[in-house]
Amino acid sequence: MTDLAPVRYDPLDPGLWRDPHPLYTRLRDHDPVHHVAGRGFWVLSRFEDVFAAATDTATFSSARGLTFEEDEITKLGLAPTLVMMDRPRHTDYRRLVNRLFTPGRVAALEPEVRAFVRGQLALLAEAGSGDFVALLADPLPSLVVAAFLGVPPEDRDRFGVWSAAIVQAIAAGGLLGARQAVGELYGYFTDLLGRRRAEPADDMLSVLLDAEIDGRPVSTEEILGFCFVMIAGGNDTAAGLLSGAAVALTDHPAERARLLADGGLVVGAVDELLRYLSPVQGLSRTTTRPVEIRGRAVPADAKVHLLYAAANRDDREFGPDADRLDVGRKVRRMLAFGYGPHHCLGAAAARLEGRVVLEELLAALPRFAADGSAGELAPGPFTRRYRALPVLARG
């Protein structure tokens, strides 16, 4: 019997976080340009529409924030950051740090990443069980972000605490809850910038201190904005990939067996897991003009939520098995990192983390078992990740 009940998307419904995909399917099939009347924003769920909006930055602006909250930038007490800019300003600011994220620069992190992963998996093997998030999925992305920013090893524990507080507050939609952590973190980086002025290093802070924008030096406030983007965008998203991958390969033993039989599939499997899991469930834009999408009139100045996770399982783009994990799938394009000018700056780093963790996990603990049903999902509609995930070394 056909379900004729109206589709209702409530991004703050905790019941949605456990398994959002049945609703995403209904949105795609029955209401692909969905209006959330009570909160006043629109939701796009089909791949074609989300892709078009992500690449049309003249119509779908990032300059008023990436959530469906109004005035989110002021609530956080921030100056506009890189991800909250449009062309040409966005292009000018992104160009300042592009060279830090080339494949060669990212590959240079692999020895440190691999050594850390091996050490954490050895602890798990010795204990026999543990929390996959606390052991690996949370600290590894924090380590990588800290390395890019030039946080000295002796300071990384403090950095990790502040970083986690910011990520959790943003994920829960309580933007004001992040302000104390942001203040403490900015105080730390202001001090670190003073050190880098005296003793430059091979890190983002030193690069930005030596750069110019609009014929002037990059300001301290602007550099702090880059730090915030790295933390808010690089930690929970990668943690979502790593924890989600552990659950997905537990729940799909045949796909795990394929990876164990052919390690050459791992690189492609990372992109398939990114598509299948979509750690970033969606981000919002604001229309700069009235626009018609599939016959529906979306006004100017409207928040439009781009539901990447729904788009990444759209059978119109990925075929009739779009809802299935297939580690051999050739993913031509997907939206786990967004698309167009705002394609994630740290995409190569996230892929590195995913590849190394898969390689080492399958080699060291080929029979691991992550219990997603007993895991605790982090709250919030923007990033889907576990904040606690029990795992057995030998399932």
Kindly summarize this structure in a few lines.
The protein has 395 residues and is an alpha+beta fold. It has helices at 14-18, 21-30, 47-55, 72-76, 89-95, 103-107, 110-127, 132-137, 139-149, 156-171, 179-198, 204-209, 220-234, 236-251, 253-261, 266-277, 308-311, 315-318, 347-364; strands spanning 33-36, 41-44, 60-61, 129-131, 212-213, 216-217, 283-287, 291-293, 296-298, 303-306, 369-370, 376-377, 386-388, 390-392.
Task: Summarize the structure in words.
By secondary structure, the protein is of the alpha+beta class. Helix content is 50%, strand content 11%. The chain contains 19 helices and 14 strands. The chain has helices spanning 14-18, 21-30, 47-55, 72-76, 89-95, 103-107, 110-127, 132-137, 139-149, 156-171, 179-198, 204-209, 220-234, 236-251, 253-261, 266-277, 308-311, 315-318, 347-364, and strands at residues 33-36, 41-44, 60-61, 129-131, 212-213, 216-217, 283-287, 291-293, 296-298, 303-306, 369-370, 376-377, 386-388, 390-392. A 5-stranded mixed β-sheet has the order 1-2-10-7-3, covered by helices on one side. A 3-stranded antiparallel β-sheet has the order 4-14-11. It has a two-stranded antiparallel sheet with strand order 5-6. Strand 5 and strand 6 form a beta hairpin. The chain is globular. The mean pLDDT is 90.
